[in-house]
Amino acid sequence: MRRALFRPRAIRRLLTALVVALPVVSACEPGDGDAASANQITGGDADRGRELIRSYGCGTCHSIPGVTGASGLVGPPLGGIASRAYIAGVLPNAPDNMLRWLHDPRAVDSLTAMPNVGLTPSDARHIAAYLYTLR
Ligand code: HEC
């Protein structure tokens, strides 16, 4: 008797676990990376960052996975940027340094070809969040 009573509850629990787990699993598509942890380490929103990357025109100089039309060859491809040890070969790759770079690349390396594109502080955070999904 008890068993029969408990079974539906167990099934309900299993279903609940699946409903909770499914969005997490489906967020792990290639190029999507771990948006939740990227958002956490940067204080930005990776989805918003992807849109901003388009509107600031980063893709005229960079190829960027997941960003339509971003196929530029002036700068390095940004696929895998989250796993790279250095940013532009000069700054250890960490969220604060990424924000520094995005704000004013020439303050970091006066000879770099990457211009200051005039990001607001919050836009830089969103963009950094998206970049950190690119593992
Ligand atoms: C006019 C071309 C140009 C534009 C526009 C541009 N970049 Fe760059 N970017 C470069 C170049 C060139 C480098 C390589 C810099 C170096 O190594 O000195 C670079 C380097 C980088 C790096 C470091 C890459 C690495 O492999 O370490 C990141 C991250 C980056 N850019 C992001 C962006 C983002 C995001 C935008 C838009 C907000 C943007 N860039 C706009 C030219 C550009």
Task: Give me a quick take on this structure.
With 135 residues, the protein is mostly helical. It has a single domain (31-131), classed as Cytochrome Bc1 Complex, Chain D, domain 2 (Orthogonal Bundle).
Structure write-up:
The protein is an all-alpha fold and 135 residues long. The chain has a single domain (31-131), classed as Cytochrome c-like domain (Cytochrome Bc1 Complex, Chain D, domain 2), CATH 1.10.760.10. Helices cover 50% and strands 3% of the residues. It has helices spanning 2-26, 35-42, 46-56, 95-103, 105-108, 121-131, and strands at residues 86-87, 91-92. The chain has a two-stranded antiparallel ribbon with strand order 1-2. Strand 1 and strand 2 form a beta hairpin. Helix 2 runs antiparallel to helix 6 and helix 3 crosses helix 6. The radius of gyration is 20 Å and the shape is elongated. It starts with a helix and ends with a helix. The structure holds heme C. Residues 53, 56-58, 60-62, 74-76, 78, 81, 84, 87-89, 102, 109, 112-115, 117, 119, 127, 131 line the site of heme C. Heme C binds at residues 53, 56-58, 60-62, 74-76, 78, 81, 84, 87-89, 102, 109, 112-115, 117, 119, 127, 131.
Strand runs, count: 2
Strand order of the largest sheet: 1-2
How is the main sheet built?
A: 2 strands, antiparallel
Report the oligomer. single chain
Q: Judging by the overall fold, what is the CATH architecture?
A: Orthogonal Bundle
For the termini, the CA-CA separation is 52 Å
The CATH topology: Cytochrome Bc1 Complex, Chain D, domain 2
* Beta content: under 5%
